């Protein structure tokens, strides 16, 4: 893992690298100039960054944005993926700053209910199969304000991650039950049943499959009445940027559907809501 150098940290520290109060802040850091790769880095405290400054000589900061540190995914040998596979092709609709809007159906047998949802991509690293962002749920019962969560995602590229989750209380049967909800998964099913799809080449497939796991609440406390114990199975269309997903949590209503469409917000700049993390 390469640690990137941030400048302009909010606070009174030299070179912007140290803040007197040590609060969490969010930044967008750029990777080296040769590859143009961008890494999203979450900095627990500015003093951690000072200790990592020695790694930053060949890196350049490009802009200020929310970020999170990404640990390298599990080695392919332990995750069941195939390190020889090619990374997915970049898609402009799945890029930093892209926003999506739609609904999540949270209906139960007792009640029909849907929340309006906004999603913003805060980081995307196809080489490591990583994506992260924020999810804002509106008109949530018992919530006075929209509820914002930060999520991290695994991109199913068969290089870093396969279709088998192997965690979060999801068995291979649960995986198959959810992936088969997506029509675009049908051509892949037979091979996924054999080896989780690790022998598939998805580098030019028109759909990108992901798992999104909410990590924490951004603007409300954990006692807000909602749970983030589960995760989303996600299918993203590289053609039109639409997103469909299904939430899995053995303790929640099954197959809560997420439907999002891409928006134009944020494509011409960095105008987005910001939140201070406590």
From TrEMBL:
<protein>
    <recommendedName>
        <fullName>Glucose-induced degradation protein 4 homolog</fullName>
    </recommendedName>
</protein>
<dbReference type="GO" id="GO:0034657">
    <property type="term" value="C:GID complex"/>
</dbReference>
<dbReference type="Pfam" id="PF09783">
    <property type="entry name" value="Vac_ImportDeg"/>
</dbReference>
<dbReference type="GO" id="GO:0006623">
    <property type="term" value="P:protein targeting to vacuole"/>
</dbReference>
<comment type="similarity">
    <text>Belongs to the GID4/VID24 family.</text>
</comment>
<dbReference type="InterPro" id="IPR018618">
    <property type="entry name" value="GID4/10-like"/>
</dbReference>
<dbReference type="GO" id="GO:0043161">
    <property type="term" value="P:proteasome-mediated ubiquitin-dependent protein catabolic process"/>
</dbReference>
<dbReference type="GO" id="GO:0007039">
    <property type="term" value="P:protein catabolic process in the vacuole"/>
</dbReference>
<dbReference type="GO" id="GO:0005773">
    <property type="term" value="C:vacuole"/>
</dbReference>
<dbReference type="GO" id="GO:0045721">
    <property type="term" value="P:negative regulation of gluconeogenesis"/>
</dbReference>
């Amino acid at each position: 893992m390469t640690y990137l150098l941030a400048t302009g940290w909010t606070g009174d520290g030299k070179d912007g690298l140290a803040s007197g109060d040590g609060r969490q802040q969010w930044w967008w850091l750029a990777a080296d100039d040769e590859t143009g790769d961008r890494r999203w880095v979450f900095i627990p405290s500015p003093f951690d960054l000072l200790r990592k400054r020695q790694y930053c000589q060949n890196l350049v900061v490009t802009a200020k944005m929310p970020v999170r540190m990404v640990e390298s995914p599990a080695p392919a040998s332990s995750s069941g993926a195939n390190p020889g596979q090619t990374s997915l092709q970049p898609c402009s609709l799945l890029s930093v700053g892209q926003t999506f809007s739609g609904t999540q159906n949270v209906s139960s047998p007792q009640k029909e209910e849907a929340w309006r949802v906004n999603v913003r991509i805060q980081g995307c690293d196809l080489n490591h199969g990583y994506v992260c962002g924020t999810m804002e749920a509106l008109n949530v019962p018992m919530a006075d304000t929209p509820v914002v969560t930060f999520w991290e995602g695994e991109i199913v590229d068969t290089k870093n991650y396969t279709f088998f989750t192997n965690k979060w209380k999801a068995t291979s049967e649960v995986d198959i039950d959810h992936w088969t909800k997506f029509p675009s998964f049908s051509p892949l099913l037979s091979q996924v049943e054999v080896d989780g799809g690790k022998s598939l080449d998805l580098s030019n497939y028109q759909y990108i499959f992901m798992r999104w796991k909410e990590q924490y609440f951004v603007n409300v406390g954990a006692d807000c009445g909602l749970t983030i114990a589960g995760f989303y199975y996600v299918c993203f269309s590289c053609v039109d940027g639409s997103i469909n997903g299904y939430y899995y949590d053995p303790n929640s209503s099954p197959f809560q559907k997420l439907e999002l469409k891409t928006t134009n917000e944020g494509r011409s700049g960095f105008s987005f809501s910001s939140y201070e993390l406590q």
